Backbone:
């Protein structure tokens, strides 16, 4: 994904000064806020592009499904395996399902889902809208009296905001299955007992904060991808930059949001 | 094909531009443009690359904002109207892009019906299909209906692009270099198409081009954009009956003596 920035030409060029970078950062912060406001202004006015939102949800799911299944399962399996020795020191292997479930529900599932989706979905949104901008397809929509912002941006942002929480739930499920595989082979725990132990330590706050995270991450991925693509610079290089920028910015923001939401959830525990 | 006599109403301007200026950073592209486009007329805009021809029609269609001056399109001042009015106005203006700008994730059929489906909600499926077939037939590309834009040649893309703007029956057409990069035969076909659109739908058009054959065959009047202003406007013969060194090369290059 870094190919644009690490090409020899770019490496040789001297970057802008720190001051210029800072002022750029503030300008983009202002611009992206304007973009978000515009989303809220247009997304909830009729006509609702329900068909297009559904199609984009499907795209989001399809694009990340395989990788999420794989990563989720492996994460659950490895996490359980690696945690066992520490618990075994206290003779507390029976707590393993509870530990795994807390780790996955509270932290891992939304985060893994969001990072993968940022890479798979965010980048393709950035590239797609970027190339539409560059080849004047967005202008063409504009002059034919259709609102490209609503049709292209609002639908994609809504779609990621809806799809990421669903995917995140699915990630939690496969990760816990991974955990089960390990627990079952080592401790011989039965399937029903495992799930009972999984749900036992989880509180209402856990579910809500996990869901909130996934929603916020989904929104972030959609907004950042669309913003990068919609305002991408002319030229094919602009498309690459839009895709790259979509991933890097979204990942950064996801980590910041993770910290914030964990803090806020802490007040309710 | 010789151009048939057009039915032009010189008392009814559909586009009136006065004192239009536009710069990018400190580069003044348009420096006081005055222009009238009359009902039913084909006006050809000639000019060197980078003189701001595309910028001019982007301003007319509201894609760019003018810095200064008045741009009246179909009776509305383009820089003073609301978003809603602009959207309604745009449906009455067709814009054929320099690079076609087809939606490459959609088939030809979807490309053509997109403006219809989204602007005329009351149409039935049958009416939509009917309109799509009619415009495709008008540009002579009925067989491409289920193809993707990537599978079309440059000339075909151009014609689909024109068909997509025709489907809303625009009162004004803006063609950005309709014949650029095409072979002579396709050029002639496009010129004929432009004239046919003028005759059949009684549209008024601005045609941007470098191609003097296109200018001669489609234009009722020619306007020469030089140094950010229209220096010479009139009939083809009037515009080129000059010794101006900035105008002559156009003529000499296009019509090898
Ligand atoms: N969005 C933009 N930002 C900055 N400068 C621009 C922009 N659009 C056009 N320009 C500048 O305005 C000038 C005129 O551009 P324009 O595209 O109108 O040229 P043109 O007359 O259509 O040329 P061509 O015949 O090559 O299409 C160019 O020098 C270009 O650099
Ligand atoms: Mg141009």
Residues:
């Amino acid at each position: 994904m870094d190919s644009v920035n690490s090409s020899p030409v770019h490496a040789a060029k001297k970057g802008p000064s720190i001051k210029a970078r800072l002022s750029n950062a503030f300008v983009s912060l202002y611009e992206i806020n304007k973009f978000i406001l515009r989303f809220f202004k247009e997304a909830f006015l009729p006509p609702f592009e329900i068909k297009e939102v559904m199609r984009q949800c499907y795209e989001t799911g399809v694009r990340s499904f395989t990788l999420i299944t794989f990563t989720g399962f492996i994460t659950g399996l490895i996490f359980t395996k690696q945690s066992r020795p520490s618990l075994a020191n206290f003779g507390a292997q029976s707590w393993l399902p509870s530990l795994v479930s807390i780790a996955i529900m509270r932290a891992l599932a939304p985060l893994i889902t969001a990072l993968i989706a940022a890479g798979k979905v965010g980048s393709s949104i950035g590239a797609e809208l970027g190339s539409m901008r560059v080849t004047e397809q967005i202008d063409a929509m504009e002059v034919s009296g259709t609102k490209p912002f609503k049709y292209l941006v609002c639908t994609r942002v809504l779609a990621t905001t809806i799809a990421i929480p669903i995917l995140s739930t699915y990630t939690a499920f496969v990760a816990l299955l991974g955990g089960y595989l390990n627990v079952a082979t080592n401790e011989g725990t039965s399937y029903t007992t495992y799930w009972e132990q999984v749900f036992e330590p989880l509180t209402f706050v856990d579910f809500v904060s996990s869901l909130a995270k996934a929603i916020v991450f989904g929104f972030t991925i959609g907004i950042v991808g669309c913003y990068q693509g919609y305002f991408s610079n002319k030229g094919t290089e602009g498309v690459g930059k839009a895709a790259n920028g979509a991933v890097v910015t979204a990942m950064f923001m996801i980590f910041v949001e993770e910290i914030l939401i964990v803090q806020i959830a802490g007040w309710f525990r | 094909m010789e151009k048939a006599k057009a039915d032009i109403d010189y008392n009814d301007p559909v586009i009136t531009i006065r004192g239009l200026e536009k710069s990018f950073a400190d580069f003044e592209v348009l420096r006081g443009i005055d222009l009238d486009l009359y009902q039913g007329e084909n006006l050809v805009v000639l000019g060197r690359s980078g003189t701001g021809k595309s910028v001019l029609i982007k301003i007319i269609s509201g894609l760019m904002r003018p810095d200064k001056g008045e741009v009246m399109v179909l009776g509305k001042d383009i820089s003073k109207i609301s978003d809603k009015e602009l959207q309604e106005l745009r449906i009455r203006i067709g814009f054929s892009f320099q690079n076609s700008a087809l939606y490459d994730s959609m088939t030809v059929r979807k490309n053509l019906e997109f403006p219809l489906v989204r602007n005329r909600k009351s149409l039935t499926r049958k009416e939509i299909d009917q309109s799509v077939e009619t415009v495709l037939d008008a540009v002579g590309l009925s067989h491409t209906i289920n193809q993707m834009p990537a599978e079309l040649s440059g000339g075909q893309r151009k014609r689909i692009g024109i068909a997509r703007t025709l489907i809303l029956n625009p009162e004004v057409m803006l063609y950005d270099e309709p014949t650029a990069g095409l072979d002579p035969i396709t050029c002639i076909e496009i010129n004929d198409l432009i004239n046919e659109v003028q005759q059949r739908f009684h549209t008024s058009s601005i045609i941007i081009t470098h191609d003097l054959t296109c200018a001669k065959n489609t234009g009722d009047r020619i306007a020469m954009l030089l140094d950010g202003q229209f220096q010479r406007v009139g009939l083809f013969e009037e515009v080129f009956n000059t010794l101006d060194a900035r105008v002559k090369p156009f003529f000499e290059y296009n019509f090898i003596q």
